[in-house]
Amino acid sequence: MEKLEMIREYSKLLKLNYLKTNVDKILETAAVKDMSYQDMLLSILKGEISLKDKRAQEKRLKDAGFPVIKKIENFDFNFQKSITKKQVNRLLEMDWIDRMHNLIFLGPPGVGKTHLAISIGYKAVEDGYKVSFVSMDKLMHFLKTKEISRISKGKVNKILSSNLVIIDELGYLPITREEANLFFQLITALHEQASLIITSNKGFEEWAELMGDAALTTAILDRIAYRCELFNTSGKSFRLEHRESIF
């Protein structure tokens, strides 16, 4: 077996994927630049770390479950003036996740709540945090079926092990008393263990009617709002204002 093939084979056994894939390029670069043995080894190790970081980020992004990718660079602060770029940039520093703070975006449909939530979540993934995104209706399905569905149980376990949980569209669909209780149990389990981002079209005063139990709603809000930044977004729907016509 040739030496290059042996290097590739040993790299495969040791799971040195960067070296296995780039051994020819590494040797060629080392020769052209007249690199020392130490510099060549250092470049290999840096390549391995970079590849592992990239694959870890790709896995975190896949596990996050974003329906689409939204970035803050594409958010129109001129259209939605209820939140400033300075405030968002402060949130993108992510220290609030380390301190177990929550973010709540309230407002009517189309004002950018989900865009903001996904953008912040995407940046958290890039920064190494485990993120889970789930709409309220899907969350209820997962919670109700986790004992009989392997997929639901896996999703709930990912949520419980996340650093940041994004719950989108709370209040758009009615929920039963059973679902409200399951939601309370989840919020209790996540309290002081993970940060939350919640988007809702209903104000806090309407949550009691949504949950069907004032005492339960108070307990939920007590846990969510203990450490929380609240943003009341307002205005017209961005989608309706920028709709594309067939004609």
Structural account:
The protein is an alpha/beta fold. It has two domains: 60 residues, no CATH class; 170 residues, Rossmann fold, CATH 3.40.50.300. The protein contains twelve helices and five strands. A five-stranded parallel β-sheet has the order 2-3-4-1-5, sandwiched between helices. Helix 9 links the parallel strand 3 and strand 4. Helix 10 packs across helix 11. The longest helix is centred in the N-terminal third of the chain and has 28 residues. It is elongated and about 75 Å long.
Task: Offer a quick outline of the entry.
The protein is of the alpha/beta class and 247 residues long.
For the biggest β-sheet, the strand order reads 2-3-4-1-5
CATH fold group of the largest domain: Rossmann fold
Output the helix-strand order.
Answer: HHHHHEHEHHEHEHHEH
Number of strands: 5
Radius of gyration: 23 Å
- As a percent range, the share of helical residues equals 55-70%
Taken as a percent bin, the fraction of beta residues is 5-15%
Largest sheet: 5 strands, parallel
CATH structural architecture of the largest domain: 3-Layer(aba) Sandwich
| Cα-to-Cα separation, first versus last residue | 66 Å
**Mean pLDDT metric:** 91
By CATH reckoning, the class of the largest domain would read Alpha Beta
Q: Could you say which overall geometry the principal axes of the C-alpha atoms support?
A: elongated
CATH superfamily of the largest domain: P-loop containing nucleotide triphosphate hydrolases
Contiguous low-pLDDT stretches (5 residues minimum) are 237-242
Task: Count every helix, treating DSSP H or I runs of 4 or more residues as helices.
Answer: 12
Structural class: alpha/beta
Overall tally of domains:
2
Keywords: ATP-binding, Nucleotide-binding
Family: Belongs to the IS21/IS1162 putative ATP-binding protein family.
InterPro entries: AAA+_ATPase, ClpA/B, DNAC/IstB-like, IstB, IstB_ATP-bd, P-loop_NTPase
GO biological process, one term: DNA replication
